[in-house]
């Protein structure tokens, strides 16, 4: 929920649980950090309009990841540089020397995108800003940039503190975007950086890599066995078209990330040349990065949009939302480590058991589950068994035939989200689409679907796969309809109101 004194009257497409700025453009989440009981969400922001430009760091805060308060612009652009994506750390050891002895400095590591008339025309380099008042005000480091390769595509630094056999120091993961490489550096003080290694994987030649993240997770909950995850966003070349986010699992020894073998993205692989897997199989989950400062927990958020049509989405004075926050774990599935994503949402205010809504088995089984009132968030949870030829799913949208159609299809080994008839789809030729996520073989199929104004987030088999899509229904209220073939056995169907 967004709580902003200056927010306009809630319009029909503004989500309730997903963060949106009161006005103007937003894209990548930046500088996600938890410090002294507060979650800080910085993000790419145009303070002056609802289109991309004037890139600055917007800022919002929360104590629960559900209710967000928009703060003043944290780091504004100027005539010299735009403030592109990056990360933030709390320098508890004051390695940078920015602290004044009263509190540990919060340090933003961002990409300086230098303009044509600047001191470094066209260059992208890494710079620092620091805050001594819990992120309220920021001072740019006088010695910026701190890392300059002379490149026009070197950006998106993710920085974290590493302690391991190789030593203890800051590590930066950044990208040479057009070369599709993640570059790793180390530093003792956040100011002086030393090259470590780089990582690359096959991808479409026209694609760029952006917004890397690198973190360690216990495998199957065992802290003695860990896996490192490397996250990379790609544009174009996403699995559903346009922009998307890949992940690779492996090891990191303080110098080099080494990928382990992972299960193909699909069976058979949809893109045999691609290693790793997809963090989300929808059209609208990009630039996902994780919060620093959370002990024993890894939480990510992504930008809920797609570069194919982001500038055209019909939301008026504001543009773009963040995804639900997702807790990330890693679990062994069929002998391979896989990332698991679990949404973080507030407790349900109301829950309805709708298991018997379809009645006895028969042809044409369909029934209304709910008609969420404007401004309400619903979660639909379904657990079912189906023979190979049986399908079931949800229609989510306006009255009659309009709506996005989510179909579980064991015979095809996939779950489809078809938004071609979901409402307003003609604002861009690339928006009407069908998304497909792999369905792991098994007797029982479990879904959780979150419906919040213009957003649909689908968590499959306990978060083993996800689909995130935008939808823009014509009406203010949304109908949720369940359908199932006669052979499908619905073990549980639950509808919960979250807001």
From TrEMBL:
<dbReference type="InterPro" id="IPR001362">
    <property type="entry name" value="Glyco_hydro_32"/>
</dbReference>
<dbReference type="GO" id="GO:0005737">
    <property type="term" value="C:cytoplasm"/>
</dbReference>
<dbReference type="InterPro" id="IPR023296">
    <property type="entry name" value="Glyco_hydro_beta-prop_sf"/>
</dbReference>
<protein>
    <submittedName>
        <fullName>Exo-inulinase</fullName>
    </submittedName>
</protein>
<comment type="similarity">
    <text>Belongs to the glycosyl hydrolase 32 family.</text>
</comment>
<dbReference type="InterPro" id="IPR013148">
    <property type="entry name" value="Glyco_hydro_32_N"/>
</dbReference>
<keyword id="KW-0326">Glycosidase</keyword>
<dbReference type="Pfam" id="PF00251">
    <property type="entry name" value="Glyco_hydro_32N"/>
</dbReference>
<dbReference type="GO" id="GO:0005987">
    <property type="term" value="P:sucrose catabolic process"/>
</dbReference>
<dbReference type="InterPro" id="IPR013320">
    <property type="entry name" value="ConA-like_dom_sf"/>
</dbReference>
<feature type="domain" description="Glycosyl hydrolase family 32 N-terminal">
    <location>
        <begin position="18"/>
        <end position="343"/>
    </location>
</feature>
<keyword id="KW-0378">Hydrolase</keyword>
<dbReference type="InterPro" id="IPR013189">
    <property type="entry name" value="Glyco_hydro_32_C"/>
</dbReference>
<dbReference type="Pfam" id="PF08244">
    <property type="entry name" value="Glyco_hydro_32C"/>
</dbReference>
<dbReference type="GO" id="GO:0004575">
    <property type="term" value="F:sucrose alpha-glucosidase activity"/>
</dbReference>
<dbReference type="InterPro" id="IPR018053">
    <property type="entry name" value="Glyco_hydro_32_AS"/>
</dbReference>
<feature type="domain" description="Glycosyl hydrolase family 32 C-terminal">
    <location>
        <begin position="373"/>
        <end position="492"/>
    </location>
</feature>
């Amino acid at each position: 929920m967004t709580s902003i004194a200056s927010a306009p009257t809630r319009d029909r497409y503004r989500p309730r649980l997903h963060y949106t700025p009161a006005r103007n453009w937003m894209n990548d989440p930046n500088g996600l950090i938890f410090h002294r009981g507060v979650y800080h969400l910085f993000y790419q922001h145009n303070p002056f309009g609802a289109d991309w430009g004037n890139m600055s760091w917007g800022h919002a805060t929360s104590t629960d990841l559900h209710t967000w308060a928009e703060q003043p612009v944290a780091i504004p652009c100027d005539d010299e540089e735009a403030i592109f994506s990056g990360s933030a750390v709390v320098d508890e050891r004051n390695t940078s020397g920015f602290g004044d002895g009263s509190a540990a400095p919060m340090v933003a590591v961002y990409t300086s995108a230098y303009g044509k008339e600047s001191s470094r025309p066209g260059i992208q380099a890494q710079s620092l800003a620091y805050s001594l008042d819990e992120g309220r005000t920021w001072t740019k480091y006088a010695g910026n940039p701190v890392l300059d390769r002379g490149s026009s595509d070197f950006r998106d630094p993710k920085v974290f503190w590493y302690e391991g056999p190789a030593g203890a120091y800051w590590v930066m993961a950044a990208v040479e975007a057009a070369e599709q490489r993640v570059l790793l550096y180390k530093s003792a003080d956040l100011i002086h950086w030393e090259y470590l290694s780089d990582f690359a994987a096959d991808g479409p030649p026209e694609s760029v890599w952006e917004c890397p993240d690198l973190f360690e997770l216990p495998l199957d909950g065992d802290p003695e066995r860990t896996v490192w995850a490397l996250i990379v966003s790609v544009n174009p070349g996403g699995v559903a078209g346009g922009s998307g986010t890949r992940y690779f699992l492996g090891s990191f020894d303080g110098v080099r990330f080494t990928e382990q073998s992972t299960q193909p993205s699909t069976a058979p692989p949809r893109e045999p040349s691609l290693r790793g897997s997809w963090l989300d199989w929808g059209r609208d989950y990009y630039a996902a990065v994780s919060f620093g400062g959370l002990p024993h927990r890894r939480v990510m958020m992504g930008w809920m949009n797609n570069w194919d049509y982001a500038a055209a989405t019909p939301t008026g004075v504001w543009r773009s939302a963040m995804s639900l926050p997702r807790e990330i774990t890693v679990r062994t599935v069929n002998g391979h480590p896989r990332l698991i994503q679990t949404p973080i949402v507030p407790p349900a205010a109301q829950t309805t058991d709708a298991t018997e809504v379809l009645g006895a088995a028969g042809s044409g089984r369909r029934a209304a589950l709910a008609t969420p009132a404007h401004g309400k968030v619903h979660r639909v949870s379904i657990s079912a068994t189906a023979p190979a030829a049986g399908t079931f799913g949800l229609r989510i949208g306006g009255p009659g035939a309009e709506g996005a159609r989510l179909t579980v299809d064991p015979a095809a080994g996939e779950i489809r989200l078809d938004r071609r008839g979901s409402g307003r789809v003609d604002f861009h030729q690339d928006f009407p689409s069908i998304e497909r996520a792999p369905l792991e073989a098994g007797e029982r199929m479990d879904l959780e679907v979150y419906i919040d104004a213009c957003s649909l987030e689908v968590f499959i088999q306990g978060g083993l796969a996800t689909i995130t899509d935008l939808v823009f229904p014509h009406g203010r209220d949304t109908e949720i309809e369940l359908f199932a073939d006669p052979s499908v056995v619905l073990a549980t169907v639950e509808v919960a109101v979250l807001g």
